[in-house]
Amino acid sequence: MLETDVALKSIRNLGTAFLAWTPRLGAAIVVVLLFWIGAKAVQWAARRAVHSRNRHRNLQVAFGRLAFAAAISVGLLVAATVAFPSFTIGSLIQLLGVSGVVIGFAFKDILQNFLGGILLLITNPFGVGDQIVVDSYEGTVEEIQPRATLITTYDRTTVIVPNSDLFTKSVTVNTAYERRRMRCDVKVKSSDARRAHDVLERAILSDIEGVEKDPKASVLLIGLGAELLTFRLLWWSSPKRGDYLIVQDRVLLAVHDVLQREGIALG
Angle formed by the axes of helices 57-83 and 2-53, to 10°? Predict the structure, then answer.
């Protein structure tokens, strides 16, 4: 009977303590909400500040995220001191010292991806809308999130690539420049290399929509045979896949038509 009385007394004490602590908990929640609203405002202000000096969209996103994370961290610290009056900066440092290693191992991948995302946004090797190749995936960058980057492939599937992979692996940015040099090898049956060269050059230098005039397209002889010649066609066009495939189609059709008119057969 005595043990039951002790248990009931302990439960009542805990209930009383919880009720006494409830106002502090409510105040802490209010503090977190206020700081969350403030963090959103700070994020917007940081992005606007960068925008007024630099129209770099990635840099705006990076600074906005860093400002939001900093404001939320301060809010959580203030909320902790409201909810637990005995909680101090010294307590926080001590807690981090004890659990830092455990947290570091537990959230290693998350932290790597978050830092990788921030570094990608700041260094700007590519941005939203660029077409990139990483590993066996190729497509258009749709969004750079804190943990991963979303890539839409050309057959309309979404690939989620961890930011740490994008920062540590080789990435090909096909749309890094406004123009991209394309090439195509053509084999023809001819014993007159100079004539075949001139015919192909006349074809590729004709007014083909999408082929840049400067730098000028060119034709190079890269292989000799008894009756089989290999030429490389080089031209500049838009770097986007949808654009350069259409231009390539026009170039090859023009080459085919000229070869037929000149009586030169393909090899």
Answer: 150
Q: What's the CA dihedral at 30, 32, 33, 39 to 10 degrees?
A: 150
Q: Tell me the pLDDT tens digit for each residue of 204-247.
A: 998 889 999 888 999 999 988 877 999 999 999 988 888 888 99
Q: Where in the chain is the domain with CATH 3.30.70.100?
A: 180-266
DSSP 3-state of 259: helix
- pTM metric for this prediction: 0.60
How many Å apart are CA 175 and CA 190, to the nearest integer?
38
Quote the tokens at residue 120.
């990608």
53 vs 129, residue with greater confidence: 129
Q: For domain 180-266, which architecture applies?
A: 2-Layer Sandwich (3.30)
Task: Extract the tokens encoding 118.
Answer: 């921030």
CA angle, residues 213, 236, 207, in degrees to nearest 5 = 40
CATH code, residues 125-173: 2.30.30.60
Query: Whole-angstrom Cα distance, residue 49 to residue 77?
Result: 26
Say if CB 210 and CB 247 are below 8 A apart. Answer: yes
